[in-house]
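Notebook p. 47: complex prediction with S-adenosylmethionine.
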Amino acid sequence: MHYVPQSLPLDQVLLGDCRQVLPSLPAESVDMVLTDPPYGVAYQSRDGRSLAGDRTLEWLKPAFAEVYRVMKPNSIAVSYYGWTKVDEFMAAWRGAGFRIAGHLTFPKRYASSSGLVRYQHEQAYLLAKGSPRPPEHLIGDVIEWQYSGNALHPTQKPTSVLTPLIESFCPYGGTVLDPFAGSGSTLVAARLTGRHGIGIEVEAKMQQTANARLQRMRSRMLENLGFAEPAAYAQAA
Ligand SMILES: C[S@@+](CC[C@H](N)C(=O)[O-])C[C@H]1O[C@@H](n2cnc3c(N)ncnc32)[C@H](O)[C@@H]1O
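Predicted complex, C-alpha cells below:
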C-alpha cells in the first residue's frame, strides 16, 4: 500500500482560504493536485449563482506557490483554467516552479456560452513538479465531458472526467489535493478510485455541502459492503 503521512487530514474538506490553510500541510506530502480554481471572470450561472474569488486573481500566485510546496517531488498537478486569463495562470504556474507538461481538452455536446464561436469545451493544463514518470497506461488528452447538472455547485465538475486523471497520476492509496474544492467532486472521484482526498474551500456553506456529500458516499459504500454506521445502529435500537 502507498505511504500516506499520518498527519494529513484525509477525505474531508477544510474550511478557509487555501493561502492560509495550505501552509499547515507538510511540504512534499501529496501525490497529486487536481483543481478547478475560479477563472477570474465574475461568472454568474443562469440561476444567478456566483463563485467566491472569481472577481480578481490576486490569490493565484500565492496559492500555486503553496500548491507546489506541498506536492511530492516528481508529481503532477492538473489545473482547469479559463482561456481569457491564460497569461495570468501561466505566469503563476511557471513562477511557482511548474513545468508545462501537457494540455487537456474536455469537449461538450452543448455550448456553455458564446462569443465569436460557441464555447464548447473545458480545458486544463498538466503541470509537472520535477520529472514524473509516464503512467503505465497512457490516457488521451481529450476527455469527453458529461453535464453534472450543477445541483450542488454552479460549476460542478462531473466525476467521470476526474477519475481517469486520478487513476493516471496518483498511485493507488495515494492522496489527491484540491485547494479549490467547491462541492468536493475531486474528493468523491478520489474515493471512487481508491485514493484519498484533501480539499480546501473558502465558502462555509459549500464546505458543509462537500463534507455532507462525502459522508453520504461513505454511508452508501458501507451499506453496499453490508455494514451499517454506528449512528444507524443507534437509531435502529
Ligand atoms: C470553480 S469552483 C470549484 C468547483 C468544484 N470543482 C466542484 O465540482 O464543485 C472554485 C471554488 O473555489 C472556491 N474558492 C475561491 N477562492 C478560494 C480560496 N482562496 N481558497 C479556497 N477556496 C476558494 C470557491 O468558493 C469555489 O467553490
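Notes: Residues 204-224 form the longest helix (21 residues). The pocket of S-adenosylmethionine is lined by residues 17-19, 36-38, 51-53, 59, 153, 155-157, 179-180, 182-183, 185, 200-203, 206 (CB under 6 Å).
Next step: compare against the earlier run before touching the bench.
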